[in-house]
Amino acid sequence: MKRSFAVLALAGTLTVALSGCVESNRTDQSRSTEAQVACPVPVDESVTGTVRLGYQDIPNGDLIVKDTGLLQTCLPKATITWSKFASGATVIQAFGSNSLDLGLLGSAAAARAVSAPLNIDMKAVWIHDVIGASESLVAKDAAITSVAGLRGKKIAVPFASTSHYSLLAALSAAGIERDVTLVNLQPDAILGAWRDSGVDAAFVWDPTLSELLKNGHVVTTAAETAKAGKPTYDLEGARADFVAANPKFLEVWTAVQNWAVQQIASDPQGAATHIAAQLGISVDEVRKQLGGYVFLDAATQAGSPYLGKQLGADLNGSAQFLLSQGEIQGLAAPEKYSTAVYSDAAAKASAK
Fold it and tell me: Which terminal Cβ of the chain has fewer Cβ within 10 Å, N or C?
């Protein structure tokens, strides 16, 4: 299948150099002693060495864990480093170059990683969120009220992302996948192209999405493509060799992520305060953005349909769709997608 792709930036492609990962301007510790909280599980001093974590500016529990410095509190003998990534494409590359141990990436990126030609041996160890209206297709022209109305337009999206996957699904359903120009841009670059009228529409996530909505409107959302059978998730991926060698670290990591999800449910103001400090936006804006996601605790994740059979099936389904769109070269064996899901740590966290 041929489509017209105008690639204005390479930051989201799988060929990007590792400079595409941006070091956080904060340390792995919390903002201050006031942001720190007590470890919600027994402190483990047996875990040592350095663990390299990758995060993205997405409002979920990962930023709460980062802001509170919980990992360093719970694992005082370990060294935790955080690096900021623009999208799942650069996380995949970091896995491939063995420069990252765990990192946040979307389910579409995870499906790409497991599939040909990358064939990366990785595991999905946690579902940060189920994506809904937090990822949306936004258009500038008020006259465009449907996906079909974007025929002949330029649409920005970070390639190899969940938004890219959802956009392809929406275009395919509307029958215009050959009639648009997709522009490969990272979220910050999308905002610049939008302001300069370099694109007509964009499919992206918060906080960029909220900026586009100041003078644009939603045409469709990831929630709609999920209803049509194309669900997407923000996942924590890890290299398979790291998972096999570090089960105790993963138990603590999962336990503090589970605590963060519980904070979003029980203390949304406090949770939003931590996330806002990391994103540099208002607490009220964070609370609004959180409404576009579904957050799952460890007990929910440990069983089907999440970190059980369903996620593996969804990764396989994502890969099949990406293959049909010419986005990957081939599928892995079906069992590779199911074994790319690691639920042991979530099961142990749910039992505590």
Answer: N
